[in-house]
Design brief:
eight-stranded mixed sheet
């Protein structure tokens, strides 16, 4: 259905563009302004370890020019979405728990990309010593909460009114799954 691979440096502009495309909705991220490509270099390098990968999903094949091949729809992007494994809380005792972040290109939302990435993360986690996956999702982000629930995540915690987006206080829901 889709190709999953480790992100390489040439993917970073698309990854940043996908991330930035979610900011205006105030549904997905607590960033209020677009991030720069340069500001994401250290983050990208931190996700080059096997146990904390950054994956991209794309068409099944890519042409010699780097453009999506026929398997992708006309006008579809080369990077459909991405998923990262990030350290949780940064202390050694938490090494078996990671936060997963899933972002999809706006033209590809609703096509199962997020679920494809999340299913791959669930399968992969035990291979790198991860026993818990968590997601941090705004309480008003119903589509993401439903996706996580569909893949066996349950509500592990609520942080009421911890973010303020355009003057509106928002809750953060922590979802988790033991793998």
């Amino acid at each position: 259905m889709y190709q999953l691979r480790l992100a390489d440096p040439s993917d970073l502009p698309a990854i940043v563009d996908i991330y930035n495309s979610t900011i205006a909705s105030r549904l997905v991220t607590a960033d209020l302004e677009p991030v720069s490509l340069e500001s994401r270099f250290a983050w990208f390098r931190a996700h080059q370890r096997l146990e904390r990968p950054l994956w991209v999903a794309g068409p099944l094949s890519v042409g010699a020019d780097g453009a999506p091949a026929a398997e992708a729809g006309q006008g579809d992007p080369a990077v459909f979405g991405w998923l990262s494994f990030s350290d949780f809380y940064g202390r050694p005792a938490y090494a078996g728990t990671v936060e997963v972040s899933v972002y999809c290109h706006e033209a590809m939302r609703g096509r199962g990309i997020g679920g494809f990435l999340l299913a791959a993360a669930i399968e992969f986690a035990p291979r790198v010593g991860v026993s818990n996956l968590i997601g941090c999702v705004f309480g008003h982000n119903t589509p993401s909460l439903r996706m996580f629930e569909k893949y066996g995540f349950t509500r592990w915690g609520d942080l009421p009114r911890v973010a303020t987006l355009d003057g509106v206080e928002r809750d953060l829901v922590i979802v988790g799954r033991r793998v």
